[in-house]
Design brief:
Distance between the termini: 68 Å
Low-confidence stretches: none
Largest sheet: 10 strands, mixed
Radius of gyration: 19 Å
Number of helices: 7
């Protein structure tokens, strides 16, 4: 029997509801976006290469779907966007839980760093709606081109290529960095309006180039940046936001990510409350509003 649009709508709805439960998602708008956005639109024609269950983070092993039926994409699986480079569309449960932590609302302005082919950018765009704005950025020209094509129907989305994006201070309510870094860039911090949120994976990279660490949420207030570790993370590295010395420090700090409470941009001497000093500020165990 041929597949119908109604079949896919039901499959997407079931997928979204499974993620709601498994990811303990609080945002109904996020669940609705997962149920609406067609993942197949962002992954090219099938059959697709899906990462085999239990495969190690580096050196992925892929299994082809039995056919080009999009139903195979509505599971909690990594799907290749460029198998030759081991690049994948991220695992829905992880990405959904991180997006949920951003607490996005209709009309907000979002920047998505490391947008890949645009699927999760489309999820962000669906959440903030046509009165919002999403800027998607990727340093890989091929991925940025694919994302621009895939997102062409979203009038409130722009796709940019490169690592020197001219963000205006205070022009974003949320920034989602979807690649591992050792430190935040000044532009990601400065672009946030009051109440703005920066979601950033601070990671240490091993010899295989894959990086692991913690996904941190920074929230801007007049007093500074409150911080919490949302979850662990295993992710590819972000070109242009890695430092060898900080990579080593993060490697040493594995397992202590949940000690971080704030991000300080004031000048101060290192002390026992300093979890990680970066060129652009210090991740600290102090609660926001306290002093060393």
């Amino acid at each position: 029997m041929p597949r119908t649009d109604d079949d896919l709508e039901q499959i997407r709805r079931a997928y979204a509801e499974r993620l709601r439960v498994s990811g303990r998602l609080k945002s109904s708008a996020l669940v609705e976006a997962l149920a609406r956005v067609p993942r197949e639109r962002f992954l090219g024609p099938g059959p697709w290469q899906i990462v085999s269950p239990g495969a190690p983070p580096a050196g992925f092993k892929y299994t082809a779907t039995p056919d080009a039926n999009p139903k195979h994409l509505y599971a909690d699986v990594l799907v290749a966007i460029d198998a030759s480079r081991g690049l994948n569309n991220g695992q829905p449960s992880g990405l959904a839980s991180w997006i949920d932590a951003l607490d996005l609302r209709s009309g907000e302005r979002v920047i998505h760093i490391g947008c890949g082919t645009g699927y999760y950018t489309a999820i962000l765009a669906d959440i903030v709606g046509p009165t919002g704005r999403v800027i998607a950025v990727d340093i890989d020209v091929q991925l940025a081109h694919r994302a621009r094509t895939n997102l062409a129907g979203y009038n409130h989305v722009e796709v940019w290529y490169g690592d020197d994006v001219p963000f205006e201070p205070g022009s974003a309510d949320a920034v989602f960095v979807n690649a591992g870094v050792t430190h935040p860039l000044p532009g990601w911090l400065d672009v946030l309006a009051l109440g703005g949120r920066l979601l950033i994976p601070l990671t240490a990279t091993g010899p295989d180039g894959f990086s692991t660490g913690g996904m941190f949420l920074l929230v801007r207030s007049r007093a500074g940046f409150a911080v919490r570790c949302v979850s662990g993370v295993a992710i590819y590295s972000c070109i242009g936001a890695r430092d060898a010395d900080l990579n080593l420090e993060l490697w040493r700090r594995r397992g202590t990510e949940r000690q971080v409470r704030s991000f300080r941009r004031d000048a101060h001497e290192p002390d026992t409350t300093c979890w990680l000093h970066t060129p652009n500020g210090c991740f600290s165990t102090l609660f926001l509003g306290t002093s060393a």
